[in-house]
Write a structure and sequence with these properties.
Layout (H helix, E strand, L loop, with lengths): L1 H12 L20 H15 L14 H15 L1
Helix pairs in contact: 1-2
GO molecular function, one term: acyl binding
Subcellular location: Cytoplasm
Family: Belongs to the acyl carrier protein (ACP) family.
Length: 78
C-alpha cells in the first residue's frame, strides 16, 4: 500500500517517488494546495475502495499520516 501511495503522490506532484519521504508535508514539501489534496483523496478512495469523509482531511498532513490513516481504513473495511 505504501508504494501505491507514493505512486499516487508522484503522479499528483510530478516528483519522483524516490524523493517523497514519509515525513514529507503535503503542503510545504510536496507543494499541494487544497484542490490538489481533494484530488489526491478522490484518487485514494478510488484506488483503495474506501471512503474518506471531509472532516478527516485535516488528518492527512504528511505521507506517514496518510499511510497510517489508510491502514486503519483498510483494516476497518476488511
Amino acid at each position: 500500500m505504501k508504494e501505491q501511495l507514493r505512486t499516487l503522490l508522484s503522479a499528483t506532484t510530478g516528483l519522483p517517488g524516490s524523493s517523497i519521504t514519509d515525513d514529507a508535508s503535503l503542503t510545504h514539501d510536496l507543494g499541494l494546495d487544497s484542490l490538489d489534496t481533494v484530488d489526491l483523496v478522490l484518487q485514494m478512495e478510488d484506488q483503495f475502495k474506501i471512503s474518506i469523509p471531509d472532516e478527516d482531511y485535516p488528518k492527512l498532513k504528511t505521507v506517514r499520516s496518510i499511510y497510517e490513516y489508510m491502514q486503519q481504513k483498510v483494516t476497518v473495511a476488511s
